[in-house]
From TrEMBL:
The gene is aroB. It comes from Flavobacterium microcysteis. This is 3-dehydroquinate synthase. It is an enzyme of class 4 (lyase). The keyword Amino-acid biosynthesis does not apply. InterPro entries: Dehydroquinate_synthase, DHQ_synth_AroB, DHQ_synth_fam, DHQS/DOIS_N, DHQS_C. Its EC number is 4.2.3.4. It holds the Pfam family DHQS_C.
């Protein structure tokens, strides 16, 4: 697979990834390498990664606890302290090996340590490959509020090796499919239709689908790197999806959701809002709802859950002048940004979702 050229860096795939990495290490005079990984990726993914690394440089592995609950400033402070204690300097390289939490937070840690040192991302989950790999967004959560603190800063390169997917449980694989579905819904109806019957897909097909998903996101981000216009289309399903994810994360009576599980619900809810605004047809809504339901189980929303979720919407990063901004579908394969929806319509969407 050919590398995909992003804004200021390249995304390399499978066997070409390690060749590109080792060439980069040979051509750049780094003082040391720090591999950031959570305990899961340290156990399951570094045995794949490390044998492919060719360098005489000193390598330190820095491990932290996995999960969204650890994607916070406290973990960053611990990582900055460890980098300092181990002698990291301006010429050190950070390699983030892991899922979206690792690449988001690792990129933020590298971007802010000594005012910024180079980093490389090696996403190991399907979600991270098709989402966190593109766009240079690095950041952490503020309490339960998703991605409130961060910077846009690109890595030196991104390496996508689909062999890491063999280490994933099924729910993590499903979680990544949500972003791929989204890419089809907002940008490419033909790509969306490929997911309507997953039974006929094989491993080779998955590699191609991942490549196409990265291409779609990169196409959007390249045109609008700072999210002033077109890039807002990538927020479809995320306005409500992030609020749902935050609510389930902070509520001790709820089981935390994976990102893709929350986004899948968000896409159904926001498709219903698109329907009510006459942006999609009844037939398109049913197709979207059935397509997502074939992959994801429905989340149970109790009546008492809806108001707290609505209150979390005000913290969404896309909001402007205190107004909640939605990216809604304009037909399957199209998008309309800057859309507004009142609370009554959002509540109707939850009622329809529960029906």
């Amino acid at each position: 697979m050919k590398p995909i050229e992003a804004n200021g860096y390249s995304i390399f795939f499978n066997e070409n990834a390690y060749e590109a990495l080792n060439s980069h290490l040979a051509e750049n005079k780094y003082s040391s390498i720090f591999i950031l990984a959570d305990s899961d990726t340290n156990e399951y993914c570094l045995p794949i990664f490390l044998p492919n690394l060719e360098t005489d440089l000193n390598i330190e592995i820095v491990e932290f606890e996995p999960g969204e609950t650890n994607k916070n400033i406290e973990t960053c402070v611990e990582l900055w302290n460890v980098l300092t204690e181990l002698g990291a300097d301006r010429k050190s390289l950070v390699i983030n090996v892991g899922g979206g939490v690792v690449t988001d937070m690792g990129g933020f840690v590298a971007s802010t340590f000594k005012r910024g040192i180079n980093f490389i991302n090696v996403p190991t989950t399907l979600l991270a490959m098709v989402d966190a790999s593109v766009g240079g967004k690095n950041g952490i959560d503020l309490g339960s509020l998703k991605n409130q603190i961060g910077v846009i800063n690109v890595p030196q390169m991104v390496l996508i090796d689909t062999n890491y997917l063999e280490t994933l449980p099924q729910n993590q694989m499903r979680s990544g499919l949500a972003e791929m579905l989204k890419h089809g819904l907002i940008f490419d109806k033909k790509y969306w239709s490929l997911f309507l019957d997953l039974n006929n897909l094989n491993t080779g097909d998955l590699d191609t689908l991942i490549y196409q998903s990265v291409e779609i996101k990169n196409n959007i981000v390249t045109q609008d790197p700072k999210e002033n216009g077109l890039r807002k289309s990538l927020n479809f399903g995320h306005t409500l999806g992030h609020a749902i994810e935050s609510y389930f994360l902070e509520n001790e009576n709820k089981t935390s959701l994976l990102h893709g599980e929350a986004i899948a619900a968000g896409m159904i809810l926001e498709s219903y809002i698109s329907l009510r605004k006459n942006l999609i047809s009844d037939m398109e809504f049913e197709e979207i709802k059935n397509g997502i339901d074939n992959i994801f189980e429905r989340i149970v929303f109790e009546e008492k859950d809806i108001q707290p979720i609505l209150e979390l919407l005000i913290h969404d990063k896309k909001n402007e002048y205190g107004t909640i901004q939605f990216a809604l579908l304009d037909g399957i394969g199209g998008i309309s940004t800057g859309q507004k929806a009142d609370n009554e319509l959002i509540i109707d969407a939850f009622l329809e979702y529960n029906s």
